[in-house]
Write a structure and sequence with these properties.
The complex is a heterodimer of chains A (136) and B (129).
Chain A lengths: L26 H32 L1 H12 L1 H28 L6 H28 L2
Helix pairs in contact in A: 1-2, 1-3, 2-3, 3-4
Chain B lengths: L10 H5 L7 H30 L4 H9 L1 H29 L2 H31 L1
Helix pairs in contact in B: 2-4, 4-5
The chains are: A mainly alpha (136), B mainly alpha (129).
């Protein structure tokens, strides 16, 4: 086993396996990235949820600070982005569960499923915000 | 690695359990299990937020003092943060290397545990205090 003795030597330069750059960008590839970005956005957005819960558990003045922020333009934009990231990531996750179960991997279904989750994420976001503004 | 020739341990013993085998499938299963749980929990969470939207402090406190909204919040936060921690870790392992990766993994774990504890404490305090 001569190969085990090369561990202390610097690795020789070897050809790298082809990475993202060599492939034509497809919808499913772009949505893979969007799924991660939405997931990271949720990891940041959960700070808003923690702020809300902690402020509510304290007193009325702490709650009013959060309430004023979330009703401001920046707060509403952050909440809108959080809503979209939540639905986009949720539907993307359902798509991955369907794929992992072995369904919808073939040519037309694959793209249709991806379009459905992309459009569905925006649609659910708009519906929820419409309900939020309409119902009092 | 300079002591490769001086150790009695075989090369196989030195690398065994250092790869992704075994642990990889376990992580994958936990990500999927929490993902399945989070679909209904997310819908319930959005429903709850919509019901809180136009309430004042006392109204929000009263709503979250009920067991069902509180339990929905606890499940959503715990399943969500556990799921989050796996996802962020996967991103760190893809893009961070060396010492930066180690610190990022520690920060990821601290972030998830601290937020989880804070949210659970807050929900319980709303219900019991």
């Amino acid at each position: 086993m001569a190969s085990t003795e090369s561990t202390s030597a610097p690795p020789p330069s070897r050809p790298l396996s082809p990475h993202l750059g060599v492939y034509r960008l497809t919808l499913t590839m772009a949505m893979s990235g969007a799924h991660r970005i939405a997931g990271m956005a949720l990891a940041v957005g959960v700070l808003l949820l923690a702020w809300f819960l902690i402020a509510t558990s304290m007193d009325a003045s702490a709650f009013s600070v959060f309430s004023a922020f979330i009703q401001s333009i920046v707060g509403r934009l952050a909440l809108f982005a959080f809503t979209w990231a939540l639905f986009h990531h949720m539907l993307g996750g359902v798509r991955h569960l369907i794929w992992d179960a072995g369904y919808g991997l073939d040519d037309p279904e694959r793209e249709q499923l991806t379009w459905a989750t992309l459009i569905g994420g925006f649609a659910l976001t708009l519906i929820v915000w419409a309900v939020g503004y309409a119902v009092r | 690695m300079a002591d490769v020739g001086k150790t009695l341990r075989t090369p196989l013993r030195r690398v065994r359990y250092l790869g992704s085998a075994r642990l990889g499938t376990d992580d994958n299963w936990r990500v999927h299990a929490t993902a399945v749980a989070l679909v209904p929990l997310t819908i319930a969470f959005v429903w709850l937020v919509l019901s809180l939207l136009h309430k004042d402090y006392n109204g929000v406190r009263a709503e979250l003092s009920h067991p069902i909204p509180a339990i929905v919040l606890l499940l959503f936060v715990l399943a969500g943060l556990y799921h989050m921690q796996f996802g962020v870790r996967a991103i760190i392992l893809d893009y961070a290397h060396g010492r930066a990766r180690e610190w990022a993994l520690v920060a990821n774990a601290f972030f998830a545990v601290a937020l989880g504890l804070a949210c659970v404490y807050a929900v319980l305090r709303i219900g019991f205090v």
